[in-house]
Amino acid sequence: MMSVIKLFFVVLLVGAATALECYQCSSSEIGDACIQSNVTNFKVTQCKSHEYACYITLIRNSGKNTTGIAERGCALNYNYCEKLIHERDTRLALSCYVCTTSRCNFVDALTMHNSSTKITTSFFLILLPLLVITRKIFISG
C-alpha cells in the first residue's frame, strides 16, 4: 500500500513539472492581434516535456513602431531571448520576453520588457509542500 502512495506522488510531481501551457500565436496567422494582450485571440498549447518556458517576441523596424511581427509560444528554456538577441539583425528592433509559469506570456508585446534575469518562482512555491510530503513518505516508508 505504501509503495502505491509513493508511486502516486512521483507521478503527481512529474505531471506537475511537465504540464506547462503557453499562449501561442503568430502575426503571420492573426496579424496585429498577436501583439496585443487580448488572450481571446490566442491558442493555448501544452508545451512538450523538454520545453520549460513561454515566450513573446516582437520584431519592428524601429523601437518606436506600434506594429511589427509578433510570436508567442513554448521555448526550450529561460535562455531563449539571449540566443535570439545575439543572432538578430541589428537593423531591426527585437523585444523578447520569457517566463516560466503556465499562460504567463499574455502581456502586450509593445509594453513588455526584455527579460533575461527575472525568474518566476511561484511554480516552485507550489511544489515545495508536495516535496516535503513526499520526503516524509519516503523516510517513514
Structure description:
- The chain has 141 residues and is α+β, with helices and mostly antiparallel strands.
- It has one domain: CD59 (Ribbon).
- The chain has 4 helices and 5 strands; from the N terminus they run αβαβββαβα.
- The protein has helices at 2-18, 27-30, 80-87, 122-140, and strands spanning 21-26, 43-46, 53-60, 69-75, 93-99.
- β3 and β4 (69-75) form a beta hairpin.
- α1 (2-18) runs antiparallel to α4.
- The longest helix is centred in the C-terminal third of the chain and has 19 residues, at 122-140.
- 22% of the residues are buried.
- Residues 7-15 and 116-126 have low confidence and may be disordered.
Largest sheet: 5 strands, antiparallel
The assigned CATH architecture is Ribbon
State the separation between the terminal residues, measured CA to CA. 10 Å
What Rg do the Cα atoms give?
19 Å
Task: Give the overall average pLDDT.
Answer: 78
Adjacency order of strands in the biggest sheet: 2-1-4-3-5
The CATH homologous superfamily is named CD59
Strand content: 15-25%
Quick one: overall form? elongated
Total tally of structural domains:
1
Tally of separate helices: 4
Low-confidence stretches: 7-15, 116-126
- Count every beta strand, where a strand is a DSSP E run of 2 or more residues: 5
- Structural class based on helices, strands and sheet pairing: alpha+beta
Described by its quaternary structure, the protein is single chain
CATH third-level topology = CD59
Q: What order do the helices and strands follow?
A: HEHEEEHEH
**CATH class division:** Mainly Beta
Helix content: 25-40%
